[in-house]
């Protein structure tokens, strides 16, 4: 079946007015240069529903209602580290089922995109003490040795594998800051 074009609303109204004036299907179809079946379909629709306009409810219904979507956006904005899977669980508790990918698509349409969060330094007393201990232990080392050390600024880089961080929902206007990694010796 080939693609069909939708007839303009004005043309549909003219077809109906011609029918109400007493013209038959053949004469109407010749006058407007459209197939007789199309003319009949428009007139039958008018007789059934009282209008030739597009009826509401055409197309697939959205899986996520507007209320559920606003709840999703509110939750993602309130807690940017929430995952799509956690949002899906919240929706299931509320009685709405949607796939994780559908939730991601809905958030993307609202301008929220998943990012890897920026790793912030953990400056605790334990880290400070371990840094001081490392500095005292390597106080008499040569400058060549110290140049090979990757100074991590109180963070523990994961050279081989995943750091275990989850995604973050951020608005499109926020920028992502890349964090370069090096494969040299790690210092505390």
Automatic annotation (TrEMBL):
InterPro entries: Homeodomain-like_sf, HTH_SB, RNaseH_sf, Transposase_Tc1-like, WH-like_DNA-bd_sf
Span of domain Transposase Tc1-like: 71-140
One Pfam family from the record: HTH_SB
Biological process (GO), any one: DNA transposition
GO MF assignments: DNA binding
Domain Sleeping Beauty transposase HTH: 1-51
PANTHER family: PROTEIN CBG27172 (PTHR46068), TRANSPOSASE IS30-LIKE HTH DOMAIN-CONTAINING PROTEIN (PTHR46068:SF1)
Protein name, entry field: Uncharacterized protein
